[in-house]
Specification:
Elements (H helix, E strand, L loop, with lengths): L4 E7 L2 E7 L4 E5 L14 E2 L3 E6 L4 H6 E6 L3 E6 L3 E6 L4 E6 L8 E6 L5 E5 L3 E5 L5 E5 L7 E7 L3 E6 L6 E5 L4 E5 L4 H4 L8 E5 L6 E5 L5 E4 L5 E5 L10 E6 L2 E6 L6 E7 L2 E6 L10 E6 L5 E6 L6 E5 L2 E6 L2 E6 L4
Parallel strand pairs: 4-27
Antiparallel strand pairs: 1-2, 3-22, 5-30, 6-7, 7-8, 8-9, 10-11, 11-12, 12-13, 14-15, 15-16, 16-17, 18-19, 19-20, 20-21, 22-23, 24-25, 25-26, 26-27, 28-29, 29-30
Length: 337
């Protein structure tokens, strides 16, 4: 029996342990790094008030709520790995629907196409529609599309998705799963990022005419139109380098993991003429307690709202802005917009 070999690599502050019969090759794919910083203080507007509703459910419900969506009826969100829950505007439960098997196809995303029709991402490449009564409808499996990281609905029964395709990750497809277009990121430095480096969040406006992709572990966002053409590119108020990727190759199999990473955004939404971002960032006293605002037209930072609690998701509907925190959903009423 051949001896097992234990090796410890320190790469970018992350310890990688290799324990195998044969040595593995470990390499680092460097992300594009900025040489200058743009950090500046958050300009927090005071006088914000809140209206809150309590979400009914168990402690498990509160721990696993995510992907909050504001609907005409009230709200919807993902609960656990397989359940979609809908509430009215007063917090009363309207329905709950279980979709798929948690082990095989967990729910990874939720959005609305308007008129309270919801669309859920099941696993990495299947969308399922849910009507206003909680009944599941059609299933959409885009043909010729890589795994979906994030998606949004568009006008004309179409969808836009950010996929794991290295060269052309921006994909438009119809409600039959037919791919209509495939594009690279409109910014050269964003296009140079590997899929693991550019994980993020998407959101669309009420008219389904604009959508935004914001980086979860990197710096900035891009606002796009319905053909995936860039309208605005913005940088977060706090400059953060994208994480490096560690590649480990053994027996012709290559795995990739993130190196040391700083989460920059917890959630993102389009609110009227603004991109709003639930901040994560370097300042742990403000992480998940500040919503940063950027102009949808220029990408420039315009101010922040400070929250009295740690939050996990934000959602917008027109000019209205909602926050999911603990067992509550709260609407913000800023004194300054």
């Amino acid at each position: 029996m051949a001896p097992r070999i234990l090796r410890l690599f320190f790469v970018g502050g992350l310890a990688v342990v290799s324990c195998e019969r044969e040595s593995a090759r470990v390499s680092v794919v460097r992300a594009p790094h900025e040489t200058s910083t743009r950090d500046s203080a958050h300009r927090v507007f005071s006088g914000t008030t809140f209206d809150s509703i309590a979400v009914p459910g168990s402690d498990t419900t509160y721990r696993t709520m995510r992907h909050l969506v504001a609907t005409d009826q009230g709200f919807a969100f993902l609960e656990g790995r397989t359940r979609i829950t809908s509430l009215d505007k007063n917090g009363r439960r309207l329905w709950g629907t279980d979709i798929g098997a948690a082990e095989e196809s967990p729910l990874l995303g939720l959005t609305t196409t308007g008129h309270d029709t919801l669309v859920a991402l099941v696993g990495a490449n299947r969308l399922i529609t849910v009507d206003p009564r909680g009944r599941t409808g059609g299933s959409i499996s885009p043909f010729g599309v890589d795994d979906i990281d994030a998606f949004v609905p568009l006008t004309g029964n179409r969808f836009a998705a950010v996929t794991t395709d290295s060269a052309a990750p921006l994909v438009i497809f119809d409600n039959q799963g037919k791919r209509l277009s495939r594009n690279a990121f409109p910014s050269a430095d964003f296009s140079a990022l590997r899929p693991l480096m550019r994980q993020g969040w998407t959101a669309t406006d009420d008219r389904l005419e604009h959508w935004v992709f914001g980086f979860a572990f990197g710096d900035g966002f891009v606002v796009l139109d319905t053909s995936a053409g860039a309208l605005t590119r913005g940088r977060f108020i706090e400059s953060t380098n994208f994480p490096d990727v560690i590649r480990r190759t053994q027996a012709r199999k290559t795995d990739e993991i993130l190196g040391a990473a700083v989460q920059t955004a917890v959630s993102i939404a389009l609110r009227d003429t603004e991109v709003v971002v639930l901040y994560a960032g370097k300042d742990r006293t403000l992480a998940k307690r500040v919503i940063d605002r950027y102009s949808i037209h220029s990408g420039k930072y315009v101010g922040s709202y400070e929250l009295p609690w740690v939050s996990r998701w934000i959602a917008a509907k027109g000019k209205r802005l909602f926050v999911l925190h603990g067992r509550y959903i709260s609407e913000l009423h800023p004194s300054t917009r």
